């Protein structure tokens, strides 16, 4: 598990990170997510090709925290991201994209490390109803579903 | 494919391309034969700066033009996009049998196997209308079985076709309202029921202009701008009661038990409708129960999370491209939570105050 790398589950998943906050959308399920602080940092590392153990090391280098807690939180978040279909394991060794990684890592390490707070994946499911397939109950002679007059929007 | 909703089918891309074009052509031929019987009726509109012509087979679907009337033009030159509209009942022309299976109706109305880089096909279950666009020919067909369309179709007509085609012109349809004045405008985002319409309609009696209250068009060149798309306002019946001056102007008073209140702003406040404004800020309305309305700065990511899902999940084939567009748009703007007060008269003054402040701060916006 620790050497396992992942990739973002494109094209099912689209995402943007703005000012340290990641917004992630699963286009198939209708769920969307946000990650801030440590969570957004981890998302950026995973997206750039870091393995689970590399994520743990980089989080410990960047944040002030207990190694065991960091290890547990990273594993839990990675499992959650997989469970939600946001990332998928990459076969083989893969490689960390060092150039892109520098975009994620803090540029100035002279400051005191911020405290590690367990990452939280915020999940929103309020758009799912828009993706529910309309059941086809009644069709005309040419096979066209008849109008469904349920009010919407 | 631009969205994961279009899943690979078991036929080759070439076959899919070929049968999609054939399907479009069959539908277009059916429209032309209908129009030969009914006679042509045409209406032209400038939408997002593009000349778009609606060609009708008969008068039955002319009710769809009310929401676009503020954008009408007499320009008779070759249009950038032509949309052909017809219905089965008034023309007596049956729809051609559908060439796909029940399982090919995907979420958001996308039809599997009939969506390619060139041809876009979707079915709207509420109206049972089919929308098909041939991007290569800048030609689309909208066909409904019955011309008596649901109120939402009259309020935001041809939304799917317009979204598909305008995206090629780098204009993004967004589920958001917009109001403003000579210094610029604010985009008001959020899912249904968040207060977009309430905010936009509360501004009708103020100095602010109305661009739209549900769906608008966004552009990025030369800076963040909003274009008006529909002049129709939709309100839950209980919200409509909060605007006593608007009640006599509601278009569907006889159907309010089953439909939202529909108001065509251009028919009653034509001078208030603005067709284009540079955008200075994004507001996310939130009902608070407090009397006064106030603003609270929020992150750009929060604005994106409010704007993008409620836009993308309403539009067939929308996905990564729409999300990236909205992210680029939002990154350029300050974002605020608009905490709506119960005194609706305070809403426009708060927005005007924000626009004045941004203008005096000379934030880097388009002028």
Descriptive notes:
The complex is a heterodimer of chains A (153) and B (367). By secondary structure, chain A is α+β, with helices and mostly antiparallel strands. Chain A has one domain (5-107, 117-125): Outer Surface Protein A, domain 3 (Alpha-Beta Complex), CATH 3.90.930. In chain A, 33% of the residues lie in helices and 18% in strands. Chain A has five helices and six strands, in the order ββββαααβαβα. Chain A has helices at residues 37-47, 52-62, 67-83, 98-104, 128-131; strands at residues 5-8, 13-18, 21-26, 32-36, 87-90, 122-124. In chain A, the strands form two sheets. In chain A, strands 2-3-4-6 form a four-stranded antiparallel β-sheet. In chain A, strands 1-5 form a two-stranded antiparallel ribbon. Chain A starts with a strand and ends in a 22-residue tail after the last helix. The model of chain A has no long low-confidence stretch (mean pLDDT 86). In chain B, strands 8, 9, 10, 11, 12, 13, 16, 17 and 18 form a nine-stranded mixed β-sheet that branches. Chain B has helices at 13-38, 88-91, 151-155, 159-168, 196-202, 237-240, 265-268, 300-312, 320-331, 346-361; strands spanning 40-47, 50-57, 72-73, 81-87, 119-124, 129-134, 139-144, 172-174, 176-181, 184-189, 209-212, 216-219, 225-227, 232-235, 261-264, 276-287, 294-298, 335-340. Chain B has 367 residues and is an alpha+beta fold. The model of chain B has no long low-confidence stretch (mean pLDDT 92). Chain B has two domains: 13-167, no CATH class; 172-359, Rossmann fold (3-Layer(aba) Sandwich). In chain B, strand 1 and strand 2 form a beta hairpin. Chains A and B meet through strand 2 and strand 3 of A and helix 8 and helix 9 of B.
